[in-house]
Amino acid sequence: MVTSQKYALITGATSGIGLELAKLFAKDQYNLIIVGRNEADLSAVAGQLANDSIDVIPMVRDLFNRDEVFSLYEEVKRRDIEVEILVNNAGQGVYGEFKNTDINRELNIIDLNVAALTILTKCFLQDMMLRNSGKILNLASIASKVPGPWQAVYHGTKAYVLSFSEAIREELKDYENITVTALMPGATDTDFFNKADMNDSKAVQDKDALSDPADVAKDGYEALMAGKDKVISGFKNKVQIAMSAITPDSTVAHLMNEQQKPVNHD
């Protein structure tokens, strides 16, 4: 019998950081709404996460499509579910020099990383404000703090996510029971690089240097529950961002170019 009354909604919940976050919420007795594009994957994850005391509701949505993002919120309302925690985890990148990459794919990524996140935040935040209760976790990245040659659009979208999260957090300071937290991982061992066609990048050749998505999720979960504004996951990433803050932007961009260009690029 489902005993929990608390609901968390997680986008991109079928793998990687999103799945690891879902496991943490389930462990803490949150009912889950898990969102993804693949019905079979969602069903498998729902079966993996469900237990006697929590409900796991899979909702199939293509978050590249703004109409489907709005319909996700409408379905939650139609079911009369109160979402206490919103996790905007879904996101993708595309690899390559901007002059060569597919503009339609990049526009789709902007729709997913920026538009979908903004729509869901707006919709669920307005409900949270009515009851003065709720938490939002937005997946930013250390990419939000540095220019990213070979991933120019992705880095740009993550800069938006961080800036947006910090701005609305300040706007909400009078709502003491509502918090907005940005999670800023570095390169993590997920399917992100496959989807971005990025496996030739120098940045992902050393698999041992990639963060464990379970560790990233734990950092994000703890920061969210503590009501923190943001968290950089991993000591190495903290050092990189601290150094980039005191380095000229043009130098940082050059260093990132060297890190991210293909292995065989002269």
UniProtKB/TrEMBL annotation:
Keyword Oxidoreductase: yes
Source organism, top-level taxon: Bacteria
GO molecular function: oxidoreductase activity
Pfam families attached to this UniProt entry: adh_short
InterPro entries registered for this protein in UniProt: NAD(P)-bd_dom_sf, SDR_fam
Spans traversing the lipid bilayer: none
Entry GO CC: membrane
UniProt keyword Transferase present: no
Keywords from the named record: Oxidoreductase
Similarity remark: Belongs to the short-chain dehydrogenases/reductases (SDR) family.
Protein name per the record: Short-chain dehydrogenase
Species, as recorded: Dyadobacter koreensis
Highest classification ranks of the organism: Bacteria, Pseudomonadati, Bacteroidota, Cytophagia, Cytophagales
